[in-house]
Amino acid sequence: MKISRRLISLAAVASLVAAIPLVSNYGASASTTPHAKASGTSFTAAQVLAGIKKNMTTAKKVNSKPHINTMTRAKNVNVYQVSSGVYAYTSSMAIDTDGSDHDPDPDHQGQTTWRDSNGKYLGAHHVPFYVLGDDCWDRKSPCPHFFYKEHNIKGRQFALMFYKSKCIGAIFGDTQTGNDQTTSDNDSRELGEASVKAAQLLGIPSSGTTGGVNNGVTVVIFSGSSWVVNGTNSNLNTNAQALVTKALNSLGTKMGL
Predict the structure, then answer these.
(1) CA 141 – CA 152 distance, rounded (Å)
(2) Residue pLDDT, tens place only, 49-64
(3) Cα–Cα distance between 78 and 250 in angstroms, integer?
């Protein structure tokens, strides 16, 4: 659970804009270059991302109040139900260094909200994970903000993450500060944080103090027990990447691409 997080400096942000994404062997290409649909039910990451964006409409918006972009603090992030049981948002990526892996980040915490299948805290350098709000900040039901517990989302819930030409698999690994943590600069309305490993796979600078990106990361969460990823810190990354093709094809079919 988050306790504090430093915002990236404006100078660092400027340098990140010009950064060239790293090459990753994980996931699938999400290049915006047009692709022909493969035979059967195979869909490219680019096709699926285009379908997701087409379905991110006002009519399909889940939250009635906007979320806070973690990196910029702007209240401009919304969550959409792009298909049955599938939720998507586009935001920044601040870097979560927490968990069992050591990290020089002075804000590093030794635990994460969710643990691996052996009960150990997740390691941000080994496991690609994303972060959601810890509670309903508004103390209302249904929550005016997207609150994972209202949408059949649990710890280690699978998601696709897209950034520029990359598409990877990730799991729900940590939560953003709840209302009862008054010492934090953050709050549970924030969206836009993910682990060191997720940033590395997406080609985003992964330092907990100078890394991240202000916008352009799309997270697509697949709800339901069948999309909860099991495994340990040593193989959760492999297990998540193994679901990427299945998730792309499942969502492509659902959206009628």
Answers:
(1) 15
(2) 999 999 999 999 999 9
(3) 23
Separation of alpha carbons 50 and 32, rounded Å:
9
Distance CA 195, CA 209 (A): 13
Q: Which helix (H) or strand (E) element contains residue 83?
A: strand 80-83
- pLDDT tens digits along 224-256: 999 999 999 999 999 999 999 999 999 999 999
3-state helix, strand, coil in the chain (%, to 5): 20, 25, 55
Residue 44 CB neighbours (<10 A): 22
The amino acid present at 151, given as its one-letter code, is H
Half-sphere exposure of 68 (CA within 13 A, CB side): 16
- Residue ranges of alpha helices (H) inside 73-222 are 196-202
Q: Cα 243 vs. chain centroid, distance in angstroms?
A: 15
Q: Which amino acid is at 64?
A: S
pTM of the model: 0.84
CB-CB contact of 26 with 168 (8 Å): yes
CA distance 199 to 126: 11
The SS3 call for residue 24 is: coil
How open is the CA angle 135-138-140, to the nearest 5 degrees? 90
DSSP state of 172: E
